[in-house]
Design a protein that fits this description.
This protein is α/β, with parallel strands linked by helices. The protein contains 28 helices and 16 strands.
């Protein structure tokens, strides 16, 4: 079996009976209304670039297929790459070198697909018979006799009895109601296209069943192969968020032969809708299922409404508990799998050693490489045990940056010794422990690759980010670290890629560098065509695509994607027992409560206490956040007769109303939330003003850190402070319980603040 590597480049002249070229293969046929039974087969083979029409949407399905046409179809399917080379050597008296089908007939003869007659002719214009069809197709494909009854009254002594039996016993051709096969009857263009499509699909099914991925790839077009390497997000259609399989999404899946999709909260209404959506997406995908992925890190990065959110990775870092990390990974995986998702872009293995990091922060387990490694491995194990793939990020490490790669190009200038000791340590351990997907970072690492190119943004010289670097991905990751799993890029919509390199060139360069899957191309159709063109013109080697697609198929099989046994009703029935279950919520609560960390205290043990009848002022940067804290406080302290008031910091600077409210309070909860900005540039002066005033009046208060826990670097003389590592309800509820004396703050700060 020869690989269908190349699309057709107009190898047959325009006047030929069956047309030619990849463009012809894409046309929609308008004359199939009386051949509906064959429409699927004709369309399938046309999309593969194997059959074509006469132009203007005409296919002529009822016209007889000639011997020349039949071998042309097979050559296009099996040996299209040979059509690009000079062909000579075979001569039939009725097929001169000027014959429009000379090349195809010559290639078919050399490869044993067809032969001529004893008198030296090929008879190219003679209609093909049903017997010859069986003979041609069994020569082309390695088919064995099947199990279906296939005895016909008129084939036992026919010269084509053996190939007819093979085709019939596999259900690839049928006979007539009178138990005849009619071997000498001619075949129409529609019939031949259907017979070919049946054989190809039969062989693909067999390859999938036996997990012979090399064989399956040999039956995949270049379009299909590169489609497996794309994972776009699901955009709006007709101005509305895409939450069902609409016509626009169907076209994208089929036109680009997509291998996967990433879902965001814009695609999710509730768990029932999401489960239905993922089920319908897989039904649309054809014989190769989709990888459906999501960012469900927990904490600040979450997607699932009604699901178990978890307090986030830095909260886990504060517990230091690998058992909890594994449980967090496992419950997250159980919920995602129930919803029809197979890949979680988590855990984050970045070591947040830079307080000014504007994008990682509380998404990291902490600033210590050993801590990140221990908890990262446990989380990976939990996800994998649940049947969901962990996609760790962002290789080689995004923790010590001051630029968000969504907005610009970060450059990490550490030497190789430092990278080995810190940034690479958790990734190396993850590889040694069998991690199966690694996401690349759009960050430049000059110590590994110091190449620079001219930026399309401003004409300046810029370094190559890891995502586009062959030295980083093939040399370091695959070579030195011995990684054999899937490499997926970070989103191609991010400015670190999009602004400087141009998407089409970036897509081509990323695949050449070693990326297996491009995540979120800005224009997935253009990215798809770019890769098809790059393979066809030799810019990207066939072997590169083959290796990536094989890794993808192997992983889809490992995670059971080819096993489509559950009905939608069965999936929906099990949701209530999994999504946000009591057992999962218990883990969520335990992590949040174990994570609460004492930042400062008058006595070194406890934050300032609340007392019976206290007037509490809750100050936060957002009204909704203050209301959430107020609600949780009143629910947890219903026996203390507390009076509460909320205020917002930063509005009209430090206005008199806020200062007056604080002045009348017995206790102040001062909530700070620093995330997605540079910590040193945050508005700490407002907080310091309040802290100074409360210290001066010897007021009871607690600074409640809801985000990155770096307050102690920038604020002075904080007499009472707690960190809860997130503004989500599990985190804040645990903090309130500590303030009320119902819990002790037992967490350990997982980042350095000195």
């Amino acid at each position: 079996m020869h690989v269908k590597w190349k699309t057709i480049f107009g190898a047959v002249l325009g006047f030929m009976l069956i047309g030619a070229g990849s463009a012809a293969a894409e046309e929609g046929f308008v004359d199939l209304q009386h051949s509906k039974w064959a429409e699927d087969g004709i369309t399938y083979m046309a999309k593969r670039g194997t059959v074509a029409g006469y132009g203007n949407g005409i296919f002529k399905p009822e016209a007889q297929v000639t011997r020349a046409q039949a071998v042309t179809f097979m050559v296009r399917e099996l040996y299209s790459e040979q059509l690009q080379r000079e062909v000579k050597g075979t001569t039939y008296s009725d097929v001169p070198t000027t014959h429009p089908f000379y090349r195809e007939i010559t290639i078919a003869t050399k490869n044993g697909l067809a032969s001529g007659f004893p008198n030296g002719t090929f008879r190219p214009d003679v209609p093909l018979s049903r017997a010859e069809t069986a003979a041609f197709l069994t020569r082309a494909y390695s088919l064995a006799e099947g199990n279906e009854p296939a005895r016909w009254t008129d084939t036992d002594r026919h010269w084509a009895a053996a190939p007819i039996l093979i085709m019939s016993s596999n259900g690839l051709v049928g006979g007539y109601s009178d138990a005849t096969f009619r071997p000498n009857q001619s075949v129409t263009r529609a019939e031949y296209a259907v017979f070919m499509s049946r054989v190809i699909r039969f062989e693909r099914e067999a390859a999938i069943r036996t997990q012979d991925w090399d064989k399956l790839i040999s039956y995949m077009t270049v379009n299909e192969q590169v489609g497996q390497m794309l994972m776009p997000d699901i955009r709006q259609w007709n101005g509305k968020a895409t939450t069902t399989v609409n016509e626009g999404l169907k076209r994208s899946i089929h036109d680009q032969d997509l291998g996967g999709l990433i879902l965001f909260d814009k695609n999710i209404v509730d768990v029932k809708q999401l489960t239905t959506f993922t089920h319908d997406l897989q039904r649309e995908a054809g014989d190769i299922p989709l990888f459906l992925s999501i960012d469900q890190e927990g904490g600040v990065i979450k997607r699932i409404p009604g699901g178990t959110n978890l307090p986030g990775q830095m909260a886990l870092g504060a517990t230091g508990d690998t058992v909890l990390a594994q449980a967090a990974g496992q419950l997250t995986g159980e919920e995602l799998k129930a919803l029809g998702l197979q890949i979680n872009f988590a855990p984050v293995l970045d070591i947040n050693s830079n307080p000014d990091n504007p994008i990682i922060g509380i998404r990291s387990f902490g600033s210590n490489a050993d801590l990140v490694t221990r908890l990262g491995l446990a989380t990976i194990q939990g996800l994998q045990q649940s049947g969901v793939m962990a996609a760790v990020k962002h290789f080689p490490g995004h923790g010590d940056t001051q630029v968000d790669s969504h907005l610009g190009m970060p450059v990490l200038t550490h030497n190789r010794e430092r990278l080995d000791a810190v940034e690479l340590k958790p990734f190396r351990a993850a590889i040694e422990n069998g991690v199966e997907m690694i996401m690349t970072a759009h960050i430049a690492f000059p110590a590994i690759d110091n190449e620079q190119v001219t930026s399309l943004k401003d004409g300046e010289r810029v370094p190559i980010p890891a995502t586009l670097s062959k030295k980083v991905l093939t040399g370091l990751l695959r070579g030195e670290l011995g990684y054999e799993g899937l490499i997926i890029s970070d989103a191609f919509t991010m400015n670190a890629i999009a602004e400087h390199f141009g998407e089409n060139k970036s897509v081509e360069r990323a695949i050449s560098a070693g990326v297996d899957i491009i995540l979120m191309p800005k224009d997935s159709a253009a990215a798809h065509q770019t890769l098809v063109n790059a393979v066809n013109n030799g810019t990207i080697k066939d072997e590169t695509i083959h290796a990536s697609v094989k890794r993808i198929l192997e992983m889809k099989a490992k995670y059971g994607l080819f096993e489509r046994s559950q009905t939608l009703a069965q999936k929906l029935t099990q949701l209530n027992g999994i999504i946000g279950s009591k057992a999962h919520r218990a883990v969520e609560q335990t992590i949040a409560e174990r994570a609460v960390t004492l930042l400062s205290s008058r006595d070194g043990v406890l934050p300032d206490p609340m007392k019976q009848g206290d007037r509490i002022v809750i100050v936060a940067a957002e009204q909704d956040q203050a209301k959430q804290l107020e609600k949780q406080l009143l629910q947890a302290a219903n026996n203390l007769s507390l009076k509460t008031e909320i205020s917002v910091v930063g509005q009209d600077k430090m206005n008199e109303t806020l200062q007056a409210a604080i002045g009348k309070a017995n206790y102040v909860i001062l909530a700070s939330y620093q995330f997605r900005n540079v910590a040193s540039q945050f508005g700490w002066s407002d907080y310091q003003t309040l802290i100074d005033a409360m210290n001066k009046s010897n007021q009871r208060y607690t600074l409640l850190s809801l985000g990155n826990p770096y307050e102690m670097i920038y604020l002075q003389n904080v007499r009472s402070g707690l960190a809860v590592y997130g503004k989500q309800e599990p985190n804040t509820s645990a903090g309130i319980k500590v303030l009320l004396g119902q819990l002790k703050a037992g967490g350990t700060l997982p980042v350095q603040t000195d």
